[in-house]
Each structure stands twice: as C-alpha cells, then as structure tokens.
Write a structure and sequence with these properties.
About 30% of the residues lie in helices and about 15% in strands. By secondary structure, the chain is α/β, with parallel strands linked by helices. It has one domain (about 10-215). Strands 1, 2, 3, 4 and 5 form a 5-stranded mixed sheet that branches. The longest helix is centred in the middle third of the chain and has 17 residues, at about 70-90. The N and C termini lie far apart (about 35 Å).
Length: about 220
C-alpha cells in the first residue's frame, strides 16, 4: 500500500487542537465551541479518509430517548447514512470512504480484516480518558492499521465513537456524537471532539439529520 503522509503544518495544528477538543457538547454550549472547531475537517477534504460505522449508543438519558430505540444497530446505521449524505453534499463523495464501502472491503478481505463495527474503542466512550495517549494502544492500533492497508492511498480514519442524548434548558435534549480522527499508520489520535445536534422537544428523525449536518459543517458549507 502506498500511503500519503499528513503535511506537517496540518498535523501540528490538529494535534494542538486535539489536546482541548474533547468537551461536553450541550446545545447551549455549541455556539461557544463552534469557533475553535469551525471547518476543522477542511484539511482532509482532498485526502483519503475512511469513516467507520458509529459504534455505541449511550443509555440512560433524562427523557428516555435512547430507550425508544428498539433496534440500536439499525438506528446507528441510519445515522451513518445521514452522515454519508451530509458529507457527500460537501464534495468528498469520491474521495472519502463511507461505512457501506468499508463493510464491502472487510468482506472481501475475510478473515484478515477486523470487523468495522467492532473496533476496540470502548475506552474512548464518554467521558473517556482524562488525557489522550501519545500512541494508540493495541488492539485498536492494529485494527486501524490493518483496515487502511486494505485500501489504496490512505492512512486516515474517522471513528464515530458514541451517540448520546443530553438535556438542555426548556425540557429539550440534543443528540451528541463523540468522534475521533486517527492517523492509522502512525497510531495516533489527531483530533477528537463532541458535536451536538439542534435541540429538540421530542425524539424523531430530525435529530440524526441535524447531527449529521452539524458534523458535515466542520468540513464546510453545502455545495451550491
């Protein structure tokens, strides 16, 4: 596999940002957090980036929205579809590799490929470690390295780690997604943050669509 390297300036900037990137993403804090993270994904817009399936759903929110999800796998898959649609509307459809394509890559490479839906990322779930490691531990490091070796020309992986629901003022909740971007070849976390949807008064499809849109906004505005 031929791997392109991350330009030093981009890598240094993102590594500096990642030290302060993990934060509670309540909707009332979203405006304050937008400036440091605005268009942070634009650095990857022309680079091969694999986006893995969303892994976990956190239970126990105050309004019981997570309890309304009877099929967690199907719901998280629908969120993946929303994110793929939102990102594709930002012009990276032919550059980035989305969960459906990653599933196909893994299937073609059985039994050598790790399961894209079962990466060893439990330790990154909310609230996560107080300090991120300088080097990714195994087995996650090996899993990511194996995945990128199966597709040409990339070393970057985005993992949507966990979806949770958080209360906001006015009897509402928002959907919050914790995600991380890894340099799989160097076994490093280069960016990690929480992103929130618009607050809603009830659980419904608008949550996933809003969350996907806000995540894609980190890449840039939709194509006109």
């Amino acid at each position: 596999m031929m791997s392109a390297t991350i330009p030093a300036a981009i890598g240094a900037a993102l590594l500096a940002t990642s030290a302060r990137a993990v934060h509670p993403a309540r909707a009332d804090a979203q405006d304050r957090s937008k400036t440091p993270h605005q268009h942070v994904l634009a650095a990857f817009s022309t680079r091969r980036l694999m986006i893995l399936p969303t892994h976990y759903l956190r239970m126990g929110d105050s309004l019981g929205w997570a309890d309304q999800i009877t099929d967690q796998t199907a719901y998280l898959s629908s969120l993946d579809d929303e994110m793929a649609f939102a990102f594709s509307d930002r012009g990276v459809k032919k550059v980035w590799v989305f969960p459906a394509a990653i599933d196909a890559i893994a299937k073609r490479n059985e039994p050598y490929s790790p399961d894209p839906h079962a990466m060893a990322a439990q330790w990154l779930r909310y609230p996560g470690p107080k300090r991120l490691p300088t080097q990714l531990p195994d087995p996650l490091a090996s899993q990511l390295r194996t995945l990128v070796a199966m597709q040409e020309g990339g070393q970057l992986v985005m993992l949507p780690i966990e979806l949770r629901f958080e209360p906001v003022p006015g009897g509402k909740e928002c959907a919050v997604l914790r995600f991380a971007i890894f340099d799989a070849v160097r076994a490093k976390i280069i960016y990690m943050a929480d992103i929130a949807s618009d607050p809603q008064t009830s659980f419904g499809p608008a949550l996933a669509a809003s969350l996907a849109g806000h995540l894609a906004d980190l890449l840039g505005p939709p194509n006109q």
